[in-house]
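hey
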């Protein structure tokens, strides 16, 4: 058995987490995930200004404080904080701690014309080779998030490239760990039943040689590890039921979860098959420039105020792509001014910054004394900012050279798996919607009455996981799962999310997890950096859907 923890779920996570994990109890490995689609764009902009950058600088700050402690305790560190420049990060770490044996993994960069960044998702075998050769610290560029766990597991247990089930088990453990405290209660719709009096603890996986694992956390830390918190993370940012990775395709329908003890969830039964022949590439391009203004509408005549403002601003927007946000008229007779107000946001995009500079901002501010009563904005006008556009591409494995640079500087190219399988095509479409029961046998209540949700982004697509909470005091769990899987169809999703009315919607049942995974294609436009939507990463999409009212059979309540 190996114990592997996580101390970062994104670039900007809690800086003290590395020390907390090292001091909280025994670990064999400690991982940190710093990369996301948006992070690669941020690092790309930094590297345009300074070619020596391109890695997560906060990881260096953590290492300055904690690397000596990790070496003392014999905990080996694996992180993708290398971003676009793992060699630069490795050199920075050697400067901080010359006694540390630092290796790095590179070769993920792909040439795509016009792209700011283009990086293939590599697997865990390069990390494994670096650890097997004696590295204390391994930093990487763009590997899959789960590879940070797969690599140490391969090195620790000596797995081969064809150990599909074992690798798939490590992928599941890695997926649970990758977003840090999201596995212990962060962004969890059942948070009201958790211990939130202390900072949430970061997760740990106790991984067995057969690929099964137990998800836990250090004693005395906040939050909880339950079947529902683990399910919440398993439902996050997935597509379909076959989780495609560079080392293995993981069957998400095979996962079995069991509450073994307080803050201990056993994960077993995971099956894997060969990975796809091609590698996914995250491509970020500069899409143009964006600017916005946010107006406050207060009191009476809200619709008339908004209409007048839009008419006054229209000449400044001639020929400029733009959108006005929807707003909700406040309730009457509010005891506070803020309660009597709502926000109206104007966002505009252009290929160059000039149309969004003074030609955009000056006409807005010139209305300060000449528009609707109570006119004011939430912040002064800003300069137009560049935005990125994300898209996924796929390349043959021959387009990359998955390479480990060992502690002594020698270079080793990692061979491809050699056995591949094309993923089974699934259209995700369910039959016609489950017919609503007669009014006398059902009630109209929020979907979240006994359904949890977790949502997020996959480029321009939104992922929405819905599952029935594990209420150990209720005997209605199986019936509720059956009801939910029949209720949630593409047509029902379009009803619950009107923005998706004209979009492709896929629904994938995950009965072992008690729910369904929903994919809404194109809901987020060209991705988070473009900022086309109020919630550009769909982080709160699940909570909105939980608040929507549906027919629930009385027998299920």
């Amino acid at each position: 058995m190996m114990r592997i923890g996580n101390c970062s779920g994104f670039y900007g996570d809690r800086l003290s987490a590395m020390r907390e994990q090292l001091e909280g109890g025994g670990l064999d490995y400690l991982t940190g995930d710093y990369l996301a689609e948006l992070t690669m764009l941020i690092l790309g902009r930094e590297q345009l200004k300074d070619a020596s950058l391109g890695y997560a600088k906060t990881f260096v700050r953590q290492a300055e404080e904690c690397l000596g402690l990790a070496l003392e305790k014999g905990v080996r560190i694996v992180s993708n904080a290398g971003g676009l420049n793992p060699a630069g990060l490795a050199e920075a770490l050697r400067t901080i701690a010359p006694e540390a044996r630092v290796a790095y993994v590179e070769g993920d960069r792909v040439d795509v014309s016009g792209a700011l960044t283009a990086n293939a998702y590599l697997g865990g075998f390069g990390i494994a080779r670096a650890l097997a050769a004696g590295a204390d610290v391994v930093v990487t560029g763009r590997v899959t998030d789960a590879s940070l766990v797969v690599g140490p597991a391969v090195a620790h247990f000596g797995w081969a490239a064809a150990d599909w089930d074992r690798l798939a088990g490590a992928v599941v453990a890695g997926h649970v760990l990758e977003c840090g405290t999201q596995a212990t209660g962060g962004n969890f719709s059942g948070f009201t039943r958790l211990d939130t009096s202390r900072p949430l603890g970061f997760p740990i996986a106790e991984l067995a040689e057969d690929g099964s694992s137990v998800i836990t956390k250090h004693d005395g830390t906040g939050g909880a590890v339950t079947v529902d918190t683990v399910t919440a993370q398993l439902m996050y940012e997935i597509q379909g039921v076959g989780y495609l990775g560079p080392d293995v395709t993981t069957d998400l329908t095979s996962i079995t979860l069991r509450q073994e003890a307080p803050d201990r969830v056993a994960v077993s039964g995971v099956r894997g098959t060969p990975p796809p022949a091609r590698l996914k590439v995250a491509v970020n391009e500069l899409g143009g420039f964006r600017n916005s203004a946010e107006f406050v509408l207060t009191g009476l005549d809200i619709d008339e105020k908004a209409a007048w403002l839009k008419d006054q601003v229209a000449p400044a927007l001639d020929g400029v792509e733009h959108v006005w946000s929807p707003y909700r008229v406040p309730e009457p007779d509010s005891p506070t001014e803020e309660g009597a107000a709502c926000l109206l946001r104007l966002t505009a995009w252009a290929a160059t910054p000039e149309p969004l500079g003074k030609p955009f901002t000056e006409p807005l501010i010139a209305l300060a004394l000449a528009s609707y009563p109570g006119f004011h904005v939430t912040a002064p006008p800003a300069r137009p900012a560049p935005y990125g556009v994300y898209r996924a591409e796929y390349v043959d494995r021959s387009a990359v050279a998955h390479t480990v640079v060992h502690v002594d500087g020698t270079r080793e190219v990692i061979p491809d798996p050699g056995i591949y399988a094309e993923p089974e095509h699934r259209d995700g479409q369910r039959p016609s919607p489950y017919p609503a029961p007669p009014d006398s046998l059902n009630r109209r209540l929020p979907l979240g009455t006994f359904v949890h949700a977790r949502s997020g982004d996959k480029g321009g697509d939104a992922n929405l996981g819905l599952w029935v909470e594990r209420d150990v005091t209720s005997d209605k769990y199986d019936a509720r799962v059956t009801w939910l899987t029949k209720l949630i169809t593409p047509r029902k999703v379009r009803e619950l999310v009107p923005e998706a009315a004209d979009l492709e919607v896929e629904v994938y049942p995950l009965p072992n997890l008690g729910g369904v995974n929903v994919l809404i294609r194109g809901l987020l436009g060209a991705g988070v950096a473009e900022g086309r939507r109020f919630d550009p990463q769909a982080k709160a999409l699940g909570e909105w859907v939980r608040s929507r009212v549906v027919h629930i059979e009385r027998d299920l309540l």
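The chain is about 25% helix and 25% strand. The first strand starts at residue 2 and ends at 6.
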